[in-house]
Specification:
alpha+beta; five-stranded antiparallel beta sheet; single chain
């Protein structure tokens, strides 16, 4: 949860806490420092100027006194008189430019003959020699004496021919005394200026900070959802006006964004609801109730990567024939799910007409191409397992090769023809394949969502890992096989999101017991290609009844001739029908019954072919009937009341 900032303090407190206030105080401190440095610099240079001014004042008074001494000396000489040192000192004592200043007089050797203050006698000899040497030089000048706390200025000038020199000493205190008032009032003025500057800054900061806090209050109100909150009225055309315009634009944008978000959210919820319904419809379409028979164990699962997917599977049992399909529509989402539904529906309709897997795939291809505006294609594997004759016929349209499990538990990939996916090329000839599928065998059909599952280390599940997982599933049920593979894939993928639809179909052909009468039945379509299935059926029946190979060939030839005759002539050309063959052992006899619903035809009453006539003179037909009659011990025909032809062939067996 986002915590709101604290704006509870008052404006007077905010004045000192704001960045602007701190910046203003820093500017004031810098300004004060600059002013103090300037003042000290001025005072330093002013002190030198003061010295010069003081020297001029003191030098003038000293010079006037010296001139007076010289004048008095000249007058005394004119009178024939001589001025004594006391006379000179009397005139010198009148020189007093400052309150604490005093005068000195020295002879030509630098010895003090007069000192206006006893401080001179308290000085060390070095200082006295310096003062005496300067005064006895015979020149006028100025220099600093009494270094340290008693720093003073010595101004000296020679008096006359007697070698006397007069001097005046001005202390530092006296020199700077005229600046004390200036410094005092200057400091007061400086503090007053700082206070005025600070007051003006405070007022400016307050006026600047107050709108900002009003903006902060408005922002808080907007953040709480009150998008119509009034903004502060800014009269100045500065950054605050720009900030207000930005806030106003933000309010308008937020209102529009919320309105758009409401529409988007409603649309998204509607779409999610529809996708949920589509998911439920799609999952309701796939087969969940598998046939419960003692000769086959079937289970399948489909896990879409999204709400709806493009994988499909289906299982249809018609008599002893198990039709099944597994497919994968290119792409994901709603378009793939629609093609999935179409493909499954086509399979169900076509499988119910007893067509071969190749014909089923061919017809699905034609139907898909007739309305494939999205240029989608479908890979699929379609097959039919005859549970009586144990024959598997299948057609693979670019789907992953299924895993074949032998009765001994050996696992391998089923050999498949490289047919094209459906939905690409019209009138493509799909090749089908056929193999013996003995009881105990199993078949795992799957989509690429299984072998192309990706681990966190970006490894594929792969066919080798799939075969390794299947080797331990020989004696478990179909449901357990699917659950085991799902668990293996889940552990392999880890936390990664499912990238593709995952569909698996497992079929195991179980051992079935014949009924008490020993019946074996096969239902075939009226297509010549079904003859191969008939041969497998005869082989299975003869093996159960322990009939030798020589007699099996005889039985197969007679039965094949009779069935081919029905396929070629019983039904009108282009009409789909079926032929049912039943085998039953009775003691030392084998009864083969051929049932069809075509045109009535009694082969026992048909003319027998004349085998003694030359082939070019012999009439067409009749040879098959001849073979059947001669190879079988008994041939019987019946036309039932419900419109079926029933032909029974009897063969004695040992």
């Amino acid at each position: 949860m986002i915590e709101a900032p604290n704006f509870e303090y008052k404006y007077d407190l905010a004045l000192w806490k704001s960045f602007s206030a701190r910046l203003s105080v820093a500017i004031l401190i810098i300004a004060a420092g600059v002013f103090l440095v300037a003042l000290l610099t001025y005072l330093y240079f002013s002190e030198e100027l003061v010295k010069e001014e003081t020297a001029i004042k003191a030098r003038t008074e000293l010079h006037d006194a010296v001139l007076m001494m010289r004048l008095r000396a000249t007058e005394a000489e004119a009178r024939g008189d001589t001025m004594g040192v006391a006379d000179y000192v009397a005139l010198l004592q009148e020189v007093r430019p400052y309150r604490h200043s005093f005068t000195l007089m020295a002879d030509s050797t630098g010895q003090m003959v007069y000192a206006g203050d006893t401080i001179i006698w308290q000085s060390d000899e070095k200082e006295l020699r310096i003062i005496g040497r300067a005064m006895s030089s015979g020149e006028s000048g100025m220099r600093e004496v009494f270094q340290g706390a008693r720093l003073s200025l010595l101004i000296y000038e020679p008096v006359g021919k007697r070698g006397l020199a007069a001097a005046v000493v001005c202390s530092r205190t006296d020199i700077l005394s005229s600046y004390k008032v200036f410094i005092f009032y200057g400091g007061i003025a400086f503090l007053a200026a700082l206070l005025v500057l600070f007051g003006c800054s405070a007022i400016a900061i307050y006026r600047m900070v107050k709108p900002l806090h009003l903006f902060a209050d408005s922002a808080m109100s907007i953040a709480e959802g009150n998008l119509d909150t009034p903004l502060p009225d800014i009269q100045s055309e500065d950054e605050l006006l720009q900030l207000r315009n930005s806030f106003a634009y933000m309010q308008t944008s937020l209102k529009q964004y919320i309105e758009d978000l409401k529409v988007t959210t409603a649309t998204k919820e509607h779409m999610e609801s529809e996708l949920t319904i589509a998911h439920d419809i799609q999952m309701g379409m796939i087969t969940k109730d598998f046939p419960h028979r003692d000769d086959v164990d079937i289970y399948a699962s489909m896990l879409p990567a999204r709400e709806v997917g493009g994988d499909l599977y289906d299982v249809v049992i018609d008599g002893d024939e198990l039709f099944f399909i597994v497919g994968d529509v290119a792409g994901k989402g709603v378009p793939a799910s629609l093609y999935m539904a179409v493909t499954r529906t086509l399979f169900r309709n076509l499988a119910s007409n007893y067509q071969s897997p190749a014909n089923v795939v061919r017809e699905i291809n034609r139907a898909i191409l007739s309305g494939n505006d999205q240029d989608l294609f479908v890979t699929l594997f379609a097959g039919v397992l005859d549970l009586k004759t144990h024959v598997l016929t299948y057609c693979n349209a670019a789907q992953n090769a299924p895993v074949l499990v032998s009765p001994t538990g050996e696992c391998s990939l089923l050999e498949v023809e490289p047919n094209l996916p459906i939905g690409l090329v019209d009138r493509y000839t799909y090749e089908e394949q056929q193999m013996a599928f003995e009881p105990g065998s199993a078949l795992l059909l799957y989509t690429d969502g299984l072998t192309e599952a990706v681990s966190p280390q970006r490894e594929l599940f792969g066919e080798d890992r799939l075969l390794a997982c299947m080797r331990g599933c020989h004696f478990v049920s179909a449901r357990q096989v699917i659950a085991h593979l799902q668990q293996e894939v889940t552990e392999f993928v880890g936390d990664r999101e499912q990238s593709d639809d995952l569909t698996m179909l497992f079929i195991r052909h179980l051992e079935s017991q014949p009924d008490e009468a020993g019946l074996r039945t096969i239902v075939m379509k009226n297509e010549v290609t079904e003859v191969e299935r008939l041969r497998t059926f005869v082989s299975s029946v003869c093996r159960e009844l322990k009939i030798d190979n020589s007699m099996m060939k005889t039985i197969n030839l007679a039965l094949e001739e009779a069935v081919v005759n029905v396929i070629n002539y019983a039904y009108p050309k282009g009409t789909r029908g079926h032929v049912e063959v039943t085998a039953r052992g009775e003691g030392n006899r084998l009864l083969l019954t051929i049932i069809d619903s075509g045109k009535p035809f009694d082969p026992t009453q048909a003319d027998v072919a004349d085998t003694t006539t030359d082939l070019d003179k012999r009439a067409v037909g009749g040879l098959g009937i001849y073979l059947v009659r001669n190879l079988m011990d008994d041939v019987r025909y019946e036309r039932t009341a419900d419109g079926h032809n029933v032909l029974t062939l009897v063969k004695k067996i040992s």
